Amino acid sequence: METHLPVVHLETIRVILAIAPTKKLFVQQMDVKGAYLNGILKEHVYMCQPEGYGDGTGCICLLIKMLYGLKQARREWKNELDAKLRKKGYMCLKSDPCIYIWCIGDDITIITVWVNDLLLFVTMIVLMDKMKSDIKSEWEITNLGEPTKIVGIKITMNPDSIAISLSRYIDHILKREGLDGSNSVSTPVKGQGP
């Protein structure tokens, strides 16, 4: 049974953020509330009565809805998202299955998906309103406005530029690998002086 959840490639996010200022793209961020609970459970899954909710009979429950922690929840959320976005006319990129686009003439909308976090890119504000409306019509969302961080990437937006920093992500990796106390240098290899 396939249970993994594809997410947008970090390289793809960086590329889109790099072209956003040159193409004058408007950028917003949204969060889908309870994303994993939106999928449809297709298998028969049984569980013991949850602690504090048992009726004393010791009966086993047949789930009829998704729960966080189910391996299937990730897959079914992606299937749900994919089906509903495609129904609204968005196309999924072959190169990155977590990028959805919708074009009309020279104008474009782009949705990047990292589990339940969405970055929205558009060429016109009216398209941002349409895209948000499309998403809100299907799921309960939190509108986060202009993004400040996603997936460990710190984003600083200015009218003519976007700066990204991966320092928090790098610090996290160093800590996880037990290297957070290492001495840092500005370049990996000290250069030779003249």
Describe this structure in words.
The protein has 4 helices and 11 strands. By secondary structure, the protein is an alpha+beta fold. It has a domain at 10-41 and 71-146: TATA-Binding Protein, CATH 3.30.310. The strands form 3 sheets. A 6-stranded antiparallel beta sheet has the order 4-5-6-7-1-8, with helices on one face. Strands 9-10-11 form a 3-stranded antiparallel beta sheet, sandwiched between helices. The protein has a two-stranded antiparallel sheet with strand order 2-3. It is flat.
Helix percentage range: 25-40%
Total of helices: 4
How far is the N terminus from the C terminus?
Answer: 61 Å
What is the overall pLDDT average?
85
Strand order of the largest sheet: 4-5-6-7-1-8
- SS-based class: alpha+beta
Order of helices and strands: HEEEHEEEEHEEEEH
What would you report as the Rg, rounded to the nearest angstrom?
A: 21 Å
- The CATH topology name of one domain reads TATA-Binding Protein
- Strand-residue fraction? 25-35%
The quaternary state of the protein chains shown equals: single chain
Low-confidence stretches: none
Q: State the major sheet.
A: 6 strands, antiparallel
CATH class of one domain: Alpha Beta
In the CATH hierarchy, the architecture of one domain is 2-Layer Sandwich
Which word captures the global form?
flat
Q: How many beta-strand elements?
A: 11
Short description:
By secondary structure, the protein is an alpha+beta fold. The chain contains four helices and eleven strands, in the order H-E-E-E-H-E-E-E-E-H-E-E-E-E-H.
